[in-house]
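INTERNAL AUDIT FORM
Audit reference: QA-55
Scope: verify that the stored structure record matches its stored sequence.
Auditor: D.O.
Record contents follow.
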Amino acid sequence: MSTPKYRIYPSVLDKFQKFLDSDIVAEEFWNKDSEGDYKLSPEEMSVQLEQELLDCINRVPHEPSEAADKGTAFNEVIDCIIEHHPCDREDMEIKTGMMTDDVISTNYGGVQFKVVGYPSIDVKFNGFDFRFDANLCKDVAQYFKGCIPQYTCSAILPTIYGDVELYGHVDYINTNKIHDLKTTKNYAFGNYEKYWQRHLYPYCLIESGEMEEVTEFEFTVVKWRELKNKPISGDIFKEVYTYSHEASTKALRGICEAFIEWLEANRHRITDKKIFGGERE
């Protein structure tokens, strides 16, 4: 197989989509002050979102984000329970918490935890300390029981500009269904409609021959509930989309060709050349 001209992953497509939708993003509530005026004008928002896209492509280091790192930590806890092993990441420490004097010994997914009082699972990661409700972790892990976690996929997408390798890391695969685990402080149904995972992951798995059929893509969403002196809990929501391989192929080709046009127009601003067919992550 010849080397693809471009290598593209979902999060960079999401950044590009936000850049394309900068006028819509500027209208969101967080970009308006108490008087209803823009904090950033649509033009300023476009400039900011394009810079964020460039930083993503160029892998510019950024300040730790508590919200993002909380999601990463939670996902690691769920994977450890599903796969029945302790955390083996050097940059993360997972242990059980102590909230009262009542000792509880319990087993989550084959991993033994000895906890005290409110059962919690504590994570130290990237300078943050997170205390998750162990029952929430158990419920989410139980929901994904039998799934294949953290599966790397890739496939070629032909475009008018040459072959593109699409690739990424699927959170959970279950028979004919794919899940992406999201965590958020605020949630409304449809929040993830424009996220490209729901097209790219099924496309890769089918085109590579690793799955014969994908019927649904689900964003499994945990909306945090945080109360003082209690572990972080949450409510679980399901945002499900029916998958059509023909429709997703067409959508992916359209967004990738538009993205390639932007890439070539901005090639002089891109310092990390992996996206131009270079070494994959």
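Auditor finding: record pair retrieved intact. The CA atoms of residues 101 and 116 lie 6 Å apart.
Action required: none
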